[in-house]
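Entry 12.
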Amino acid sequence: MTTSQTMRTFVAYVEDRPGVLNRISSLFRRRNYNIVSLNVGRTHEAGVSRMTFRIEADDDMALRVEANLYKMVNVLSVEDITHKASVSRDLALIKVTVGPDKRAEVLQLCEVFRARAVDVGPETLIVETTGTQDKIDGLVAILQPFGISEMVQTGTVAMSRGPRGAAASALNDPQSLRDLSVA
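Predicted 3D structure (tokens):
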């Protein structure tokens, strides 16, 4: 097994119930694992949410993370998609301090990154971009000289390419899941 830490991407399907996020984040805190990125949202399945989280971990730590998640009551399925063909995206909103004299220049730069203006004020412009972390970092570097006054970024969302991932496929296997209808 490899001992060097790399950025790992995990997908977990969980019951859509109060306190699940808290219990999972507490598990990471207790084990001293740092969550670099976390995104949680509903799925097309009623009562099921999907978590995508990224952590720096070596192979051994990644196996322990997965095993610890499976021990949790509200976790339905887990998959490490780090080494699988996948698509991942982040979303960022960036507020740039720019007057009318430089606005056209900023908008042209945004086009190169396939970003778009979602709000225009007298002295500010809010830009929306989606993509990889490298793309977002590149856009931030280009906009920095104009003056970034605020920025917010989502956690990564990721999905394996091709047929349903192992974690999603487990949702259709009643033997591998707990009964969601139990209150």
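Annotation: The longest strand covers residues 86-97. The beta strands are 6-15, 35-42, 48-57, 75-80, 86-97, 116-120, 124-131, 148-153, 157-160.
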